[in-house]
TrEMBL record:
Catalyzes the cleavage of L-kynurenine (L-Kyn) and L-3-hydroxykynurenine (L-3OHKyn) into anthranilic acid (AA) and 3-hydroxyanthranilic acid (3-OHAA), respectively. Keywords: Aminotransferase, Hydrolase, Pyridine nucleotide biosynthesis, Pyridoxal phosphate, Transferase. Its cofactor is pyridoxal 5'-phosphate. Pathway: Amino-acid degradation; L-kynurenine degradation; L-alanine and anthranilate from L-kynurenine: step 1/1; Cofactor biosynthesis; NAD(+) biosynthesis; quinolinate from L-kynurenine: step 2/3. GO terms for molecular function: kynureninase activity; pyridoxal phosphate binding; transaminase activity. Its EC number is 3.7.1.3. InterPro entries: Kynureninase, PyrdxlP-dep_Trfase, PyrdxlP-dep_Trfase_major, PyrdxlP-dep_Trfase_small. This is Kynureninase. It catalyses: L-kynurenine + H2O = anthranilate + L-alanine + H(+); 3-hydroxy-L-kynurenine + H2O = 3-hydroxyanthranilate + L-alanine + H(+). It is an enzyme of class 3 (hydrolase). One of its GO terms (cellular component) is cytoplasm. It comes from the Bacteria. It comes from Labedella gwakjiensis. SUPFAM superfamilies: PLP-dependent transferases.
Length: 413
């Protein structure tokens, strides 16, 4: 049924959700995740992806064999190579990156610090870094700290909060002294998807380097880092790559740039000859020089199962389902939440949207707390946003509708 205002009623939405689930070519992947007792609707895969089925066995096997039996010999039998091997896999499956350009290490924050610092290593005092004012706090704080230590100037871009940053915004803010631009590919609040190839071109035309934060796009938005000439990128593995809480991040550095950059955390794992125990630091070649300390091997286990699934599904199919899920969430919002005065804080243009939508209402802090007790799990972002994160391989359309329906029911009346 469709109401006179053009929106659907709940029965109609339930039928549409069922049809979409029935015809979903990726529907079978939902069973590839560990069941979550008591969870009616998990809408936070953009913050913490669910464990892939078998993750417990994978970790137990690791403890019994690689660690428990092979013991320290395992460093030579794969662990030392894991940052590169896993980086190459992330690059191939999700980033459009050839081997030798991506490593897994550290946290997103630490890798951002290393790459931002490296990108401005030779910049004279007074050089400028461009960053969006709405960027994630860690990105902004790092740029503030690095600029303060090196006498650099920050230019803040203030794009439309819903449409997100555009090439025109960036071009207007670039100056002859801009050495680096730091942007998120998908905005953590609005879900706006920036035009990575076009903005990368605009930054290069101005002679600056670009660093893309891929935390909210890795694993849901197909990327072309090599083909787009992206200089630097960093992303999370515990969001849409389901690596588990605190799993290490990945860094990408363009081939022609690697040997020209030096990151500031000089550790033995980044040195030219790790076991030479040399008297002084000489950076390694290729991506080795972006490492610092011992690889966090345990944290690299869980994401491998998700990479298997994404590879099997294919990034284009993942993106198609992501768009279908966010389209459906907006349709349910129009019918159930807009009439109650809830705002849509995400663009309706699916080409420029990542895999979450954000809705706003003054009651949402309390509403979110209430929903969590009911097993409906979105997240709250101050001042009044609820993000509905839709992880394509683990989220169904029916589950999405259950979430939106629960938000509507929890609104104060
Ligand atoms: C999640 C996220 C981070 C997190 O950084 P950590 O070091 O893992 O805490 C950084 N930047 C963006 C844009 C994020 O969405």
């Amino acid at each position: 049924m469709t109401a006179t205002d053009g929106t659907d009623d709940l029965d109609a939405l339930a039928r549409i959700a069922a049809d979409l689930d029935d015809s979903d070519p990726l529907a079978a992947f939902v069973d590839e995740f560990e069941p979550a007792d008591g969870v009616v609707s998990y809408l936070d895969g953009n913050s913490l992806g669910r464990p892939v089925r078998g993750t417990g066995e994978r970790i137990a096997d690791f403890v019994a064999n690689d660690w428990g039996t092979r013991l320290i010999r395992s460093w030579d039998e794969g662990w030392m190579e894991l940052p590169y091997a896993l980086g190459d896999r992330i690059g191939r499956i999700t980033l459009g990156a050839a081997p030798g350009r991506t490593v897994v290490a550290d946290s997103t924050t630490v890798l951002l610090y290393k790459l931002i610092s490296a990108a401005v290593q030779d910049a004279p005092a007074g050089s400028r870094i461009l960053i969006e004012r709405g960027n994630f706090p860690t990105d902004r704080f790092l740029v503030e700290g690095i600029a303060a230590h090196r006498g650099l100037v920050i230019d803040w871009v203030d794009p439309d909060p819903i449409a997100g940053v555009t090439g025109d915004d960036v071009t207007a803010a670039l100056t002859p002294d801009t050495v680096l631009v730091v942007l998120s590919n998908v905005d953590y609040r609005s879900g706006a998807l920036a035009d990575l190839p076009a903005i990368t071109r605009a930054v290069h035309d101005a002679g600056a380097l670009i660093l893309w934060d891929l935390c909210h796009s890795a694993g849901v938005v197909p990327m072309t880092l090599d083909a787009s000439g992206v200089d630097l990128a960093v992303g999370c593995t515990y969001k849409y790559l389901n690596g588990g809480p605190g799993s290490p991040a990945f860094a990408y550095v363009r081939a022609g740039l690697q040997e020209r950059l030096e990151q500031p955390i000089w550790g033995w794992m980044g040195a030219a000859d790790v076991f030479a125990m040399a008297p002084e630091y000489r950076p390694g070649t290729g991506m080795r020089r972006f490492l610092s300390g011992t690889p966090p091997v345990v944290g690299m286990l869980a994401m491998q199962g998700m990479l298997d699934l994404i590879e099997r599904a294919g990034m284009d199919a993942v993106r198609a389902k992501s768009i279908a899920l966010t389209e459906f969430a907006i349709r349910a919002y129009d019918a159930l939440l807009a009439p109650a005065g809830v705002e849509l804080l995400t663009t309706r243009d699916s080409e420029h949207r990542g895999s979450h939508i954000t809705i706003g209402h003054p009651s949402f802090r309390e509403v979110t707390a209430q929903l969590w007790t009911e097993g409906v799990v979105p997240d709250f972002r101050a001042p009044q946003g609820i993000r509905l994160g839709l992880s394509p391989l683990s989220t169904t359309f029916a589950e999405t509708l259950r979430g939106v329906t629960a938000v509507a029911a929890a609104l104060p009346r």
